[in-house]
Amino acid sequence: MDVNFRIFRFDPQVDKEPGYRNYTVSAEPWDRILDCLNKIRWEQDGTLGYRMSCAHGVCGSDGMRINGKCALACQKLVKDYPGGEIVVEPLPHFKVLKDLIVDVDGFLSTIKVLHPHLVDPESPPEQERLQSPDDRRKIDDVIRCILCACCTASCPVLAENPKYIGPAALVWAYRFIHDSRDGRYTERLKQINDHDGVWPCVNYFECTRVCPKGIPVTKSINQLKREIQKAFPERSE
User: Fold this and answer.
1) Which of 53, 105, 161, 227 is most buried, judged by most C-beta within 10 A?
2) Which phi and psi angles does 217 have, rounded to 5°?
């Protein structure tokens, strides 16, 4: 069947203003949106810019907004959008580098500030650092994050407060705060106990709805708030 696509286009080196361009693609209902974008680029318009890598929902590189909802183009199928056209746009809240490609350097830098690795002041053991199955289960959900930025791009709070650390960064904070092998529990809680840290979240749940890995993002953020309130009852924002 023929599927109509309306795709955001903007090349800052050429265009003065962004716009949209229409394409028609012959596709099957089970074709992925990424497959259709590839057809457009390979068969109709080689100037179309977007990111892709593994094409199997693992790398998180092809995050974009499809019919108003942030998602991975490699996970969404044509049949998920019955009737009418499919509108494809770049992730909101990010600077557009070209078409559907956005600048994620600031997004990744925010997570890097949180020291997304195990830190233990004690001397390392002779072998690996052991962790019980129960302790591992505490972080089973959040370790699925692939840094696709869909949750952060979907967050309404960022439209009001661009300095907000964002849900993806808080998921990574949760991951190490609850990791029994990490030795910076208090320091990590202090780092997110800020008016631009964990507290701007007001439970819109958009981050949870769009997460392609099914991470309970909002629930995790609320649990971080409770951890802070227990650790610093007089210093919580």
Assistant:
1) 227
2) -60, -50
| H-only helix segments in 91-205 | 105-113, 133-137, 150-154, 157-160, 167-177, 185-192
Percent over 90 (pLDDT), the chain = 92
Sequence-separated (6 or more) residues with CB below 8 Å from residue 69: 154, 209, 210
**Across residues 96-116, what is the average pLDDT?**
97
Which pTM was predicted?
0.93
Closest CA to 48 of 75, 80, 23, 74: 23
The confidence band for 120, taking pLDDT boundaries of 50, 70 and 90, is confident
Q: What whole-number distance in Å separates Cα of residue 215 and Cα of residue 145?
A: 7
d(CA 34, CA 40): 10
| Strand, coil or helix: 196 | coil
For residues 127 and 22, what is the distance between their CA atoms, to the nearest angstrom?
Answer: 58
Residues 77 and 187 in one domain: no
Do 119 and 73 sit in the same domain of this protein?
A: no
Alpha-carbon torsion 8, 14, 15, 16, what sign? Answer: positive
Please state, in angstroms and rounded to a whole number, the distance separating the CA atoms of residues 167 and 218.
8
Q: Residue 127: how many CB atoms within 10 A of its CB?
A: 6
Pairing of strands 63-66, 69-72: antiparallel
Q: Which of 49, 82, 102 is the last residue of a domain?
A: 102
Alpha helices in 71-130 (DSSP H): 105-113
For residue 237, being part of any structural domain is answered with no
User: pLDDT tens across 217-226, in order?
Assistant: 999 999 999 9
